[in-house]
Specification:
It is a single chain. The protein is of the alpha+beta class. The protein has two domains: 115 residues, Uridine Diphospho-n-acetylenolpyruvylglucosamine Reductase, domain 2, CATH 3.30.43; 313 residues, Cytochrome p450, CATH 1.10.630.10. Helices cover 51% and strands 10% of the residues. The protein is built from 18 helices and ten strands. The strands form three sheets. Strands 1-2-8-5-3 form a five-stranded mixed beta sheet, sandwiched between helices. A three-stranded antiparallel beta sheet has the order 4-10-9. A two-stranded antiparallel sheet has the order 6-7. A hairpin with a 2-residue loop joins strand 6 and strand 7. Helix 6 crosses helix 7 and helix 6 runs parallel beside helix 17. About 3% of the residues have low confidence.
């Protein structure tokens, strides 16, 4: 086993720092699945002096499945988020995580999705009712609102919509870019704004009308009030926070790129629209589980958008003990970045990996099955994203609805290839992804 100092050293060039996926993919091809990078002095208190990158299917399997017990989520995600959220499911390790996930899991099964679809459909129709007038929509910003309302109203049963919009605005105040603050002032900001967010949540919980049985919040309340309690009040609030946060940001990102890629690939858009229209003709609605299950072309397009533009590029971890990977020693306490985005661009896993090609997932190619742990958009192993089924249901429902009612076209010079998709913890919102949504009745007439 080679010592830590022998791990190849990389420094991401300035030109690649805003969007380093392509550089990291090339580094993995040239140097192998593991390399390290020196942490800047400003961030060493969070990440330590070195950060280790692991890339590729073998690394994904190692961290997400076979050796997951050697890594800490808390040491990874807490450093990554910088203490923005209360202790939550994302931070919890091993046995504690397993017990909390067991509480929530029944609310995220495929069978549970049917109970969320009416509210989910209502959110989608309400939020998109005026699209096409005007035709040009800043898609990413619009999808942020849709995804947040979908999680809050459909999954968590919170409302009314006006109160959810206020909750979303408070989330944005909490997640401001830390750059304008000094260190002490930023921590004071986090404490104050998180307390305000929790106050909003408690007010909504107090007025919540149960429309389902055994849903997410019901199950969490039972665990909170068990004797002895299965979770603390802070964990209860933290779980709500991260369900809202992870539930809307990841879905927003994938949805943005699905629509962006379909706009710039009209032939693929046309094929999927034909599939959607057929489902509508068969079921009389796109708001049923049966209709959404019968959309394989759309599902493959969603998978391909998630591969090309991973909603979570990095799965951060902290090592709990000395680890050996690919012949190198990684000491305990090392901050590790499992880079999912770079893994999805490896040419020995996906043919022409930079090309939008949903048919790569269709028989007989089925590239995602050829290499286990090659496609990990929502993670993998026992801790695969808890909300993956809800996210996929929402993405199918939203995209099917839009394709049934609109033709989607790009806006000149604003294509998916030249619009950077930044991290969410930034109060200078990007210009997003403007697209044109042309009502189909206008085309038909």
């Amino acid at each position: 086993m080679l010592p830590f100092e022998a791990i190849p050293l990389v420094e991401v060039p300035e030109s690649d720092r805003k969007n380093p996926v392509a550089y990291l993919m090339r580094a993995a091809v040239e140097r192998g699945p593991i390399f390290r990078r020196r942490t800047t002095r400003r961030l060493q208190s969070r990440y330590g002096p070195w950060q280790v990158y692991l890339i590729g299917p073998a690394a994904n399997r190692f961290v997400l499945h076979s050796h997951r017990h050697l890594f800490s989520h808390e040491r990874g995600w807490h450093a990554f988020f910088g203490g923005v959220w209360d202790e939550n499911l994302l931070y919890l390790d091993h046995a504690t995580h397993a017990s909390h996930r067991q509480v929530l899991q029944p609310a995220f099964t495929q069978a549970a999705m049917a109970s969320y679809l009416p509210a989910l459909h209502r959110v989608i129709v309400s939020q998109t009712s005026k699209w096409g007038a005007p035709e040009q929509i800043e898609t990413r910003g619009a999808l942020r609102a849709i995804a947040f309302h979908a999680v809050a109203e459909a999954l968590l049963g919170l409302g009314p919509p006006g109160a959810v919009a206020q909750l979303h605005a408070q989330r944005d105040r909490l997640c401001r870019n830390p750059a304008p603050f000094g260190k002490r002032a930023y921590w004071d900001h986090i404490q104050t704004e998180r307390a305000t967010l929790n106050a909003y949540l408690r007010d909504l919980l107090a007025t919540r009308v149960d429309t389902q049985t055994n849903d997410v919040i019901d199950r969490m309340l039972v665990a909170l009030h068990a004797d002895p309690p299965l979770m603390t009040d802070a964990q209860f609030m933290g779980h709500l926070q991260i369900l809202l946060e992870a539930g809307h940001t990841t879905t927003m990102d994938v949805a943005t790129w699905v629509l962006g890629f379909l706009a710039t690939h009209p032939h693929v858009q046309g094929r999927i629209r034909t599939e959607v229209d057929a489902a509508w003709a068969t079921h009389g609605s796109l708001a049923t589980a049966e209709a959404l299950r019968g959309l394989p072309l759309l599902s493959r397009a969603i998978d391909e958008a998630g591969r090309l533009r991973s909603p979570v590029d990095t799965a951060p971890r902290g090592t709990l003990t000395e680890i050996e990977f690919a012949g190198y020693q990684i000491p305990p306490g090392t901050f590790v970045r499992l880079h999912l985005g770079a893994s999805h661009r490896l040419p020995d896993v996906f043919a022409e990996p930079d090309r939008f090609d949903p048919d790569r997932f269709a028989p007989p190619r089925e590239e995602e099955k050829r290499t286990p742990y090659g496609l990990v958009t929502f993670g993998g192993g026992p801790r695969i994203c808890l909300g993956v089924t809800f996210a996929q249901t929402e993405l199918r429902a939203l995209t099917a609805h839009l394709l049934h009612h609109y033709r989607i076209e790009p806006v000149a010079d604003e294509t998916p290839s030249n619009v950077y998709n930044p991290g969410e913890y930034d109060d200078s919102l990007p210009r997003g992804l403007p697209l044109r949504f042309i009502p189909r009745h206008a085309i038909d007439t």
